[in-house]
Inverse folding.
């Protein structure tokens, strides 16, 4: 992969992490012709589709006025909402001047990551309830005896690993983050030093991944005719 292609993929990944739909190397049609776009970003807000055109300039020299004007022309012709010119080497004064009061912005991946870091973390937090719900359904689809056999819950009244408890603790942490309440609390949650969404992710990920791995092992051993469902307390 060339250095430019890697730079393009870094840009695409950044916008995907923000929850946007992203396409690379896209040819779009405009009023006066077609245009090859490095990265095309789209998302929906208030029922409206918003489109951004991203140009990647992985150069050793700053971009100049002509590059900004070219992107501005493409944005206008394609009817896009915004154009973003990415350059880690900065931009000449004239290039910045022509962005004034326009819908074209010159920045860098480094600066965008710093500005958007909080939003990226919250996007990752927002994606977790779906995974937790799937793990919850997988856990309760198994019989009590099967969960006991494969270490997903303790046998009888003894203490030990419990997938149900892990799920409850993860839910308590996520609810706390979404409510912006720290440190998180819950009926089964021990005292945890979590004071930010990033710290919450660091706490949740290994526990959820461990549970998902255990579920995968147990599911592979389910008899061909399917599990026998029994009603029992986790």
């Amino acid at each position: 992969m060339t250095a430019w292609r890697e730079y393009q993929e870094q840009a695409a990944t950044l916008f995907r992490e923000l929850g946007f739909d992203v396409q690379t190397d896209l040819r779009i049609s405009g009023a006066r012709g077609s245009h090859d776009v490095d990265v095309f970003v789209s998302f929906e807000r208030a029922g409206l589709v918003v489109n951004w055109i991203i140009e990647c300039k992985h150069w050793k020299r700053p971009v100049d006025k002509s590059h900004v004007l070219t992107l501005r022309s493409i944005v206008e012709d394609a009817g896009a909402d915004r154009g973003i010119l990415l350059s880690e080497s900065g931009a000449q004064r004239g290039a910045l001047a022509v962005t004034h009061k326009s819908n074209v912005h010159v920045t860098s991946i480094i600066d965008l990551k710093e500005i958007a870091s909080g939003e990226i973390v919250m996007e990752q937090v927002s994606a977790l309830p779906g995974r937790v719900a799937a793990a919850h359904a997988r856990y309760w689809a198994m019989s009590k005896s099967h969960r006991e056999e494969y270490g997903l819950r303790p046998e009888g009244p003894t203490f030990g690993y419990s997938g149900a408890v892990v799920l409850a603790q993860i839910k308590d942490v996520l609810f706390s983050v979404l409510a912006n309440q720290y440190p998180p609390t819950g009926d089964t949650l021990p005292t945890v030093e979590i004071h930010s969404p990033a710290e919450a992710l660091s706490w949740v990920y290994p526990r959820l991944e461990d549970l998902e791995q255990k579920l995968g092992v147990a599911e592979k051993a389910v008899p061909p005719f399917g599990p026998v469902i029994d009603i029992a307390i986790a």
